[in-house]
Amino acid sequence: MILNSYNNILVLAPHTDDGELGLGGTISKLIELGKKVTYVAFSTAQQSVPEGFPKDILKTEVKKATAQLGISPENLIIYNYEVRKLGYVRQEILEELIRLKKANSFDLVFIPSLHDIHQDHTTIAQEGLRAFKNTTLLGYELIWNNLTFNTQCFVELNREHIQAKVEALKAYESQGARDYLSEAFIFSLAKTRGVQAGCPYAEAFEVVRLFL
């Protein structure tokens, strides 16, 4: 199993919840396989938090969500860059990524799709590619932001992995009843990717760089 050949995995999430949405089931499976998963969130989107919630609520929620998936607290890194303005600090973000690279030996890195049109997602995808161009890179899908998405790679999952993803996303109470947070949507997309891959459930990725 190719997935089992990777041991030190990095997930780059522009905002809290992006990683869970894009590959929550895969993270659950990697943890189940005993792999080390480091999750980096670049913005807690304080400027976008709805009225009635503390401004730092997403920091609290991402801690709960990643813990639900099995990520150790010491492997969660949270930055506080301003939402929708990551492009203004592109060089600073790149330097942070290079520091992470030098301090770790990541063999698999997940980034947003290079076809993701959200400005923050574009920044993290591009700077992630620059920093980790000599590492296997997979782009995850957030279909509401993707003008196109190449389903070149599939991770076969079971129902328990998708349920873990659903439970993790329930931590984001501040995000309300967004369609893409619903259990029905999460299971239907996983089922669709599973049909494409010939298995019950799956998550799909774009192959950005592959080292065998």
TrEMBL record:
Gene3D superfamilies: LmbE-like. Signal peptide: none annotated. SUPFAM superfamilies: LmbE-like. This is PIG-L family deacetylase. It comes from Parabacteroides hominis. It comes from the Bacteria. Pfam families: PIG-L. The lineage of its organism: Bacteria, Pseudomonadati, Bacteroidota, Bacteroidia, Bacteroidales.
